[in-house]
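It is worth pausing here to work through a concrete case rather than discussing structure prediction in the abstract. The textbook approach is simple: state the sequence, then state the predicted structure, then interpret. We follow exactly that order.
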Amino acid sequence: MTVGPIVIGTGFALFTWIGPSGDYISEVLPGVAVFGLGLAITVAPLTSTVLAAVPAERAGTASAVNNDVARTASLIAVAVFPAAAGITGDAYLHPASFSAGFHTAALIAASLCALAGLVAAATIRNARRAAPEPGFHCPMDAPPLRTGRPVTSRSR
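Step two, the predicted structure:
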């Protein structure tokens, strides 16, 4: 939860290499590769943290809230970053102005991601889990499986 946002921020910072020529291999690919690596590092621990914070019977609701928050944040970012970076409706007509605004937006996003990584490092702690009770447990750490009859090779 700490490393992932910082790697994502590094990917955003690499987007400042993108210039008006837009050469994919040398300007776009490095930022996209680092950004994608950061997402891969972040998404699984974030989902695990959210699901571990609720009882097993509420996991579906927690997953839905996690997805809703991610989608809402994406929509807000798409709406706010261009305005915060000074990209206006006709900026696409002026490549130098658009490029400067894009670089500003990338640096704002990089800063926010780095800040998120630092906040995660300072605030998220893994609580110790209680030892599981003896018996059969689901691999997803759900409550123990209990049936009314013993499981034998013939009853499967």
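Step three, interpretation. Helices lie at 3-14, 24-52, 59-84, 95-123. The mean pLDDT is 86.
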